[in-house]
Design brief:
Structural class: mainly beta
Strand content: over 45%
Radius of gyration: 35 Å
Number of strands: 23
Strand order of the largest sheet: 5-10-11-15-16-17-18-20-21-23
CATH architecture: Beta Barrel
Order of helices and strands: HEEHEEHEEEEEEEEEEEEEEEEEHEE
CATH topology: Lipocalin
Largest sheet: 10 strands, antiparallel, barrel
Shape: elongated
Number of helices: 4
CATH class: Mainly Beta
Length: 458
């Protein structure tokens, strides 16, 4: 019986040991990340002896852990004139705000706080592409009759009927901010970001493709069917065609951020302020051909150039509101932003068309003619949603490396491809043509990017 009792006690000890270890789970301090002011340090001797040298006797420092200010109280930077300390959040980098997000000198030690902070990031942007109609065509058979050269649907599309301009471009984002109080409850932040100029190009000539055409739909009093402007045809014309498009986007905002919630190493701020964004894009299609005679209606040697261009600008001004969040765990940080801007977007579209025949100019192109050429302006209400998410790592003292994702949109924007008649309707016969009609369709424009960069906490 005694052996059974000892055996039972041994088994119980072995079972309780792992259960005790499992129960020792780290629990975060609920006050973690809240403001604690500098502590008063008082030397106290270890025994009753007095007037002894601290270097020889050994003293301990009694730390008063009493919070001298209520949470959220504003502490002025000059509240501690006799100390080299500036107010800090907590006692290590495991908190939030203050030293943790501005002036931390390592993973487990903080330096003096500084109210300024800044960051610089490189962003690889992708943007909404231009969804183009068929703009350049050819025929696989060089013996195709001239009246069918480049005519859809039998012709092959060389360029268009596709999404163009969705490849990556390199831009950046720059942030500068300042805490407005010692407790890190309010900050003023300014940002500027840009996508850089990004474009697409296409070119083709009669050496590559003996038949080249620019398709369109001839409206009455023409044939009322699919046609093509012949740029190159064997024995009759040689020529080339070029298409180019460009897109440039940049924006800025100024935000007031105020602490909304904090604790467990994180915080959420409410933000509001001013928002600016500008989207500029253009699209140009040009062809150049020379007559070789044969059945070509133009005299031998005649040089013909036909140009169409579309350019749009969207400029937004308004106010924004949203939330930003921050969380830190050791050397790792996670922060994000969700905000919405609402205001006025001023839209401008410029359409130009021109035909040169032996340097004699006519103010008509193929897709831009007097019926739709000129400048158009409009203003309307629009939204800009934005979402950012970043993961950071404390790489060096006062320096974080971060990696993340961003997306920004603009509603009711004009783009060049939206100004083109999707049916490519054009009247090349009438002196006072009513086609193509001026169209100003709008839609949502967006850019998204993968960002990586450095944050300097001065």
């Amino acid at each position: 019986m005694r052996w059974l009792t000892l055996f039972a006690l041994f088994c119980s000890a072995n079972l309780l040991a792992p259960l005790t270890a499992i129960a020792q789970v780290r629990v975060k301090d609920q006050d973690r990340g809240r403001y604690r002011p500098p502590v008063d340090v008082q030397p106290v001797e270890l025994n009753d002896q007095t007037n002894r040298d601290p270097q020889t006797t050994g003293l301990v420092e009694l730390v008063d852990h009493q919070v001298l200010h209520d949470p959220g109280d504003v502490i002025q930077w000059n509240d501690y004139p006799d100390s080299d300390w500036s107010p800090m959040i907590g006692g290590s980098c495991d908190g939030i705000g203050g030293c943790d997000s501005i002036a931390c000198s390592g993973c487990n030690a903080c330096t003096l706080c500084n109210p300024w902070f800044a960051s610089s990031e490189v962003i690889l942007w992708w943007r909404q592409p231009q969804q183009l109609a068929p703009l350049v065509t050819t025929n696989a058979d060089p013996g195709t009759p001239r009246n069918q050269a480049g005519v859809l649907p039998e012709a092959l599309t060389l360029f268009g009927n596709s999404r163009e301009g969705d490849s990556v471009s390199v831009g950046g984002r720059f942030t500068l901010g300042r805490w407005l109080d010692s407790a890190s409850c309010q900050s003023l932040t300014a940002r500027y970001w840009l996508t850089g100029t990004h474009g697409f190009r296409f070119s083709a000539d009669s050496a590559q493709h003996p038949i080249l055409g620019r398709p369109y739909f001839e409206v009455p009093p023409g044939s009322g069917q699919q046609e093509a402007l012949v740029i190159a045809y064997p024995g009759e014309r040689t020529g080339n065609v070029r298409v180019r498009g460009n897109s440039e986007v940049h924006g800025a905002d100024v935000s007031m951020r105020e602490l909304w919630r904090e604790g467990l190493g994180g915080r959420i701020d409410f933000m509001y302020g001013y928002q600016f964004m500008r989207v500029s894009e253009d699209l140009a299609i040009g062809s150049l051909s020379q007559s070789l005679g044969g059945s070509d209606p133009l005299p031998i040697g005649t040089i013909q150039s036909v140009q169409d261009s579309f350019r749009t600008t969207n400029e937004f001004h308004g106010g924004h509101f949203g939330f930003s969040g921050f969380y830190e765990e050791g050397c790792w940080t996670l922060d994000g932003l969700v905000k919405f801007a609402m205001g006025n977007v001023r839209r401008t579209a410029m359409l130009r068309g021109e035909t040169l025949v032996d340097n004699v100019a006519i103010d008509d192109g193929l897709l831009v003619r007097q019926s739709n050429a000129g400048q158009v302006r409009s203003s309307t209400f629009a939204w800009i949603p934005e979402f950012n998410l970043n993961l950071g790592y404390r790489w060096r003292p006062n320096v974080d490396f971060n990696f993340g994702y961003s997306v920004i949109g603009l509603t009711r924007a004009w783009q060049p491809w939206r100004l083109i008649d999707p049916g490519l309707r054009s009247d090349l016969v009438s002196a006072t043509a009513i086609e193509p009609v001026r169209r100003t369709r709008s839609g949502t424009f967006w850019v998204q990017g993968i960002n990586f960069g450095l944050r300097w906490f001065y």
